[in-house]
């Protein structure tokens, strides 16, 4: 890394544990906090990129925290992992090659692996420590790494896509919030790289922040990438331990229309899921009026 890429050394995840409770206070959600009761700290350290904390909570199972922000709790992770994976995969008639950027905990891989028609899964995670400690402490998510179709690349996703043009049917970006190393993942040049790395008819699905908190981030990004993607949509899921209990997804297509309706319905697969189903797929794109107006200028 260059000096400009060196991580800040100020944050210490252990400082956020006070009187046996972990307190998440993020700059992207001012005036509110999320607290979880800690039973045991399983790991704390600093990777090349960020502060990494793993603890066992009293009621939410094992919790992964990066730079002070909750990424995964065993209690509710499935609502996020299933939706970010199955929304784009079920919207594609025949996804064979899938790229995951980020998602080092392995949960997205776990969900993609449930699609028997997928032939290749590649994951690009820039922080190898996230993979390492997820395998150690979150085996229920990291089980995705055991699939023989998976190739792991510990590297920058932008660099990987530059070397792999017109290659993927679906690209899923499971990123942390746009602070620190994940900041570039919320900018138009990154979406252009994904577009170039998609096959014709391909679909991208990215973590799209919270409609209650981040419309000022979502709206300009959607407007900008609509200049080169043929369709851009915003869907969302509910998840109690993310800020305001909601997280969105930006889905965009290359020479394909709307993804609001699934191209495939697989009731057998749905039996193995806890959140996603074909009916919820369509409902996830129905936004409250304030969000629809703010994101799409009431189109």
From TrEMBL:
Family: Belongs to the spermidine/spermine synthase family.
Protein name: PABS domain-containing protein
PROSITE patterns: PABS_1 (PS01330), PABS_2 (PS51006)
Active site, per annotation: 174
Keywords: Polyamine biosynthesis, Transferase
Annotated SUPFAM superfamilies: S-adenosyl-L-methionine-dependent methyltransferases
Domain PABS, chain residue ranges per copy: 19-254
Top-level taxon: Eukaryota
InterPro entries on file: PABS, PABS_CS, SAM-dependent_MTases_sf, Spermi_synthase, Spermidine_synt_N, Spermidine_synt_N_sf
Species for this entry: Tetraparma gracilis
Pfam family for this entry, one: Spermine_synt_N
């Amino acid at each position: 890394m260059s000096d400009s890429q060196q991580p800040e050394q100020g944050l210490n995840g252990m400082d956020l544990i006070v009187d046996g409770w972990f307190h998440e206070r993020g700059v992207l959600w001012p005036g509110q906090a999320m607290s979880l009761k800690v039973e045991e700290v399983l790991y704390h350290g600093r990777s090349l990129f960020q502060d990494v904390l793993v603890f066992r909570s009293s009621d939410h199972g094992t919790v992964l925290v990066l730079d002070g922000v909750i990424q995964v709790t065993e209690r509710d992770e499935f609502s996020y992992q299933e939706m970010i994976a199955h929304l784009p995969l079920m919207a594609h008639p025949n996804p064979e090659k899938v790229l995951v950027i980020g998602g080092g905990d392995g949960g997205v891989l776990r969900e993609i692996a449930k699609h028997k028609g997928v032939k290749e899964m590649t994951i690009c995670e820039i922080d190898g420590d996230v993979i390492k400690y997820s395998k150690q402490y979150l085996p229920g998510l990291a089980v995705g790494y055991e699939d023989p179709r998976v190739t792991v690349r510990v590297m920058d996703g932008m660099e990987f896509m530059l070397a792999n043009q017109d290659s993927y049917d679906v690209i899923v970006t499971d990123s942390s919030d746009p602070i620190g190393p994940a900041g570039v993942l919320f900018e138009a040049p990154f979406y252009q790289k994904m577009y170039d790395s998609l096959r014709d008819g391909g679909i991208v699905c990215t973590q799209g922040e919270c409609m209650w908190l981040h419309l000022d981030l979502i709206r300009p990004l959607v407007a900008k990438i609509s200049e080169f993607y043929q369709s851009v949509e915003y869907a969302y899921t509910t998840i109690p331990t993310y800020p305001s209990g909601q997280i969105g997804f930006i889905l965009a297509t290359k020479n394909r229309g709307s993804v609001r309706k699934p191209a495939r319905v697989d009731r057998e697969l749905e039996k193995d899921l806890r959140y996603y189903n074909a009916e919820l797929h369509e409902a996830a794109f129905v936004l409250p009026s304030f969000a629809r107006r703010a994101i799409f200028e009431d189109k």
